[in-house]
UniProtKB/TrEMBL annotation:
It comes from the Bacteria. SUPFAM superfamilies: Metallo-hydrolase/oxidoreductase. This is MBL fold metallo-hydrolase. It catalyses: 3',5'-cyclic UMP + H2O = UMP + H(+); 3',5'-cyclic CMP + H2O = CMP + H(+). The lineage of its organism: Bacteria, Bacillati, Bacillota, Bacilli, Bacillales. It comes from Paenibacillus polygoni.
Length: 268
């Protein structure tokens, strides 16, 4: 089967993704209620009892809202680095000692045949991370909630067959939006969120003929639209000399209110 995944929900109202292969199924973040996560998984013919663990990117509520409830309901281990555990412990309630697992930034761990690598990202959290998943020659990388594309992140997600990458906001929409200026400045800063333009610029440096699909994720409902994000990312790539036919490379959508179809990383 190789690596398959579905982005259950992506955005400021809640984030959760399932990554699985032949023998392992992992939930990345649990930023919605346990009931809603169950509903979204059921839409993709999956049960919480099929999960083997939960990986946490950082402690913001749109990534951990249902974390404790899901872990307790299905007796699942939670994997996060030490600083993230310290930052989120009071918010997620009591977790069984055997289900508190530490996966430090930069570490690699194996879940049977699925290998997971954690890498640090830039965001206003205790110690935020992204993850890359490996099964044989297949690679899936998930990087959202990052203020900018650092060399560390670029190295970590390069050569991924498929990426889930943040394209949070349109800069002009954000500047003209209703948020107070200090919030706008935080979002646009190095500890905030990646804009459409920045995502396109980053992808122009990452494209090497290996990456087949990029899912644009964590879009702001107030300051972005999916079609605008796809257009801006594509234009930013082309302005930097990065041209691809749709048959060679695709920009794919994620949603805040429904899961993406299962995608097989090895699919063309």
């Amino acid at each position: 089967m190789g690596i398959r995944f579905t982005v259950l929900s992506s955005g400021s109202t809640g984030n959760a993704t399932v990554v699985r292969n032949d023998d392992t199924a992992l939930l990345i973040d649990a930023g919605l209620s346990a009931k809603r996560i169950d509903e979204l998984m059921l839409e993709r013919d999956m049960l919480g009892s099929q999960l083997d663990g939960i990986l946490v990117t950082h402690e913001h509520s749109d990534h951990i809202r249902g974390l404790g409830a899901v872990a307790r309901k299905y007796n699942l281990p939670i994997y996060a680095n030490t600083n993230t555990w310290k930052a989120m412990q009071k918010s997620i309630g009591k977790i069984a000692e055997e289900n508190i697992r530490f996966l430090e930034s930069g570490e690699v761990t194996e879940f049977k045949s699925l290998r997971v690598e954690s890498f640090g990202i830039s965001h206003d959290a205790a110690e935020p991370v992204g993850y890359s998943f490996y099964d044989g020659k297949e690679k899936l990388s998930v990087a959202t909630d990052l203020g900018y594309m650092s060399d560390k992140v670029r190295d970590a997600i390069s050569d991924a067959d498929v990426m889930v990458l943040e394209a949070n906001h349109d800069i002009d929409m954000l500047r003209m939006g209703r948020y107070p200026w200090n919030t706008k400045r935080r979002i646009m800063g190095d500890l905030g969120h990646l804009s459409n333009e920045a995502a396109g610029a980053a992808l122009s440096e990452l494209m090497n003929g290996i990456t087949k699909r990029v899912y644009l994720a964590h879009l702001s409902r107030d300051h972005n639209m999916m079609e605008l994000a796809k257009l801006t990312v594509r234009n930013a790539m082309e302005e930097r000399g990065c041209f691809y036919k749709d048959s060679e490379f695709q920009l794919c959508e994620t949603y805040y209110d429904r899961p993406t179809p299962w995608d097989k990383v090895s699919s063309p």
